[in-house]
UniProtKB/TrEMBL annotation:
Protein name: O-acetyl-ADP-ribose deacetylase
Gene3D superfamilies: Leucine Aminopeptidase, subunit E, domain 1
PROSITE patterns: MACRO
Domain of life per record: Bacteria
Organism: Arthrobacter koreensis
PANTHER family: GANGLIOSIDE INDUCED DIFFERENTIATION ASSOCIATED PROTEIN 2-RELATED, MACRO DOMAIN-CONTAINING PROTEIN
Pfam families the UniProt entry points to: Macro
TM helices/strands, residue ranges: none
SUPFAM superfamilies: Macro domain-like
Domain Macro: from-to ranges: 1-172
Amino acid sequence: MEIELVQGDITTRDVDAVVNAANSSLLGGGGVDGAIHRAAGRELLEACRALRQGEYRDGLPVGEAVATGAFNLPAQWVIHTVGPNAAAGQTDPELLRRAFANSLAVAEELGAATVAFPAISAGVYGWDAGDVARTAVQAVRDHRGTGIERVEFVLFSERVLQAFRAALAESGD
Ligand code: AR6
């Protein structure tokens, strides 16, 4: 699987699936979540509301992932996941690993060949960008499946991009 680092706005990426760093409510928020909802349009919120009325009545648990359509985005699907919130004491790296790994599993199930990820939990949720980058790269390396051809990490800031560059170099790529 090819890994690419891109600096910019994830909502513009022409990939099959865009991963959203959501919160358990699935009903939008700030950061990348807000940007994805704004760009995708109201139908995304409606799709998320439908999830909340069905299987995810109590919200999406930390570390899990679920897909909706992507509406006005160039992508076909949005995969919503919830990273751990370090600012609220969720510092277990396994939760962060699961957010990346379960998003990849959902992408694989959907038949997505290209997937774009933001730096889950590296913003409001307060994780160190280096920890996020190493966890993200390892999750991609550990993913077992044949459908996903390319994973893009789309990083907003130069600082987070550098953290991902370092993690990729450390992992031998
Ligand atoms: N494209 C790519 N990356 C972005 C974009 C964008 N358009 N906008 C921000 N980032 P955050 P979290 C970067 O806070 O830490 C929301 O309110 C940002 O610079 O979006 O998982 C949710 O509803 C940072 O590096 O997500 C939750 O309540 C990274 O994306 C909570 O924030 C993640 O920052 C989730 O917090």
